[in-house]
């Protein structure tokens, strides 16, 4: 995390905005530079962007490591939305200032807010997992959305920073959570649920029943990178404290799982989640957590591609060794690559 702070401090000091002859604002060296996204306008029949009831609220995290992925994700949401002006983004970041400037210059027409996520909230609650990237405090920020976002936001779609949509998020937003569900997400009942927890957990006389006793349905795996969250039910049910309680068991009492922020969500919500069509999270495209090999799509239609796992499309594309599906991410990449001599290469629409 110290390294992350230094990187963002450098961004803050050194990034400068200039306007080139064509009027395109481009961020010049030595921070990351992104092309400006076009203005996306509402189609016919969209409600007024001023009407709060018709706003679609999206939440994502921003940090220097995944910034390129977050920006591609935002662009994909806008590009496939029928009513892009009705979408509001809520970004969580541990050092908002330099990131706010980059988002504002990349998306000059975007309705967004950045909230500071205080990493000390979770730092001492995290236990190390199988992959260090999973232990970044910002991975746990989704647990605190209900506290950080204003009370006027009743529902939010949370997206990880390594995904793109190829469909209108309004369809995901419209899901009916029924009378009790706090979360909606695609569920995977064929995945081996047992394997997400250690034998220490399953052999404990109390813990499995404390977690899953009395669930309305069989607990199934779901991926926490795509979730529709009812923030009002979350707040009144004190779900942040429930997730923190299980993190405390893992940290202080017994190693009950190997992954990062996912298992606490399974412990609290599995079997109570409102199922979403699988097309809304074609996950695992980054390969597994250790090797990051290429993966294929699961059978069926696709609305969202998610490079969960170790491999990330921008890294594989830059290394000249992309997986074939990484080509589907590339059109959303606004990053301006620098050639080795430090000059800025301009791409595509310039
Ligand atoms: C599921 O995972 C557990 C723990 O890793 C393993 O013992 C069990 O054999 C697996 N079950 C199936 C059906 O693969």
TrEMBL record:
Its EC number is 2.4.1.-. InterPro entries: Glyco_trans_8 (IPR002495), Glycosyltrans_8_dom-fam (IPR050748), Nucleotide-diphossugar_trans (IPR029044). This is Hexosyltransferase. Transmembrane segments: none annotated. One of its GO terms (cellular component) is Golgi apparatus. Belongs to the glycosyltransferase 8 family. Residues 1-21 form the signal peptide. It is found in: Endomembrane system. One of its GO terms (molecular function) is glycosyltransferase activity. Its main location: membrane. It is an enzyme of class 2 (transferase). SUPFAM superfamilies: Nucleotide-diphospho-sugar transferases. The keyword Glycoprotein applies. Pathway: Glycan metabolism; pectin biosynthesis. Keywords: Glycoprotein, Glycosyltransferase, Membrane, Signal, Signal-anchor, Transferase, Transmembrane, Transmembrane helix. It comes from Zostera marina. It is a single-pass type II membrane protein.
């Amino acid at each position: 995390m110290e390294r992350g702070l230094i990187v963002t401090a450098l961004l803050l000091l050194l990034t400068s905005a200039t306007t080139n002859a064509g009027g395109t604002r481009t961020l010049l060296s030595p921070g990351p530079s992104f092309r400006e996204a076009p203005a996306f306008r509402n189609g016919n029949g969209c409600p007024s962007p001023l009407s709060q009831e018709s706003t679609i609220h999206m939440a994502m995290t921003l940090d220097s490591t995944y910034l390129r992925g977050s920006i591609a994700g935002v662009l994909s949401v806008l590009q496939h939305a029928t009513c892009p002006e009705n979408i509001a983004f809520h970004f969580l970041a541990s050092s908002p200032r330099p990131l706010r400037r980059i988002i504002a210059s990349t998306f000059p027409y975007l309705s967004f807010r950045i909230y500071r996520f205080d990493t000390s909230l979770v730092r001492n609650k995290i236990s190390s997992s199988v992959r260090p990237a999973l232990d970044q405090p910002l991975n746990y920020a989704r647990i605190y959305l209900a506290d950080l976002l204003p009370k006027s936001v009743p529902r939010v779609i949370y997206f990880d920073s390594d995904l793109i949509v190829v469909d209108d998020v309004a369809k995901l937003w419209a899901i009916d959570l029924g009378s009790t569900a706090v979360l909606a997400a695609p569920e995977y009942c064929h995945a081996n649920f047992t394997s997400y927890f250690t034998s220490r957990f399953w052999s404990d006389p109390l813990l499995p029943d404390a977690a899953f006793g009395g669930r309305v349905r069989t607990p199934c795996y779901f991926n926490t990178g795509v979730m529709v969250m009812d923030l009002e039910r979350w707040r009144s049910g004190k779900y942040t404290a429930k997730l923190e309680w299980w993190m405390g068991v893992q940290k202080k009492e017994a190693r009950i799982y190997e992954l990062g922020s996912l298992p606490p969500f399974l412990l609290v919500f599995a079997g109570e989640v409102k199922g979403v069509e699988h097309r809304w999270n074609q996950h695992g495209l980054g390969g597994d957590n250790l090797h990051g090999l290429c993966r294929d799509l699961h059978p069926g239609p696709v609305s969202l591609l998610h490079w969960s796992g170790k491999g990330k499309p921008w890294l594989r594309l830059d290394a000249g060794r992309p997986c074939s599906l990484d080509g589907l991410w590339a059109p959303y990449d606004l990053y301006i690559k620098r050639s080795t001599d430090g000059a800025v290469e301009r791409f595509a629409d310039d």
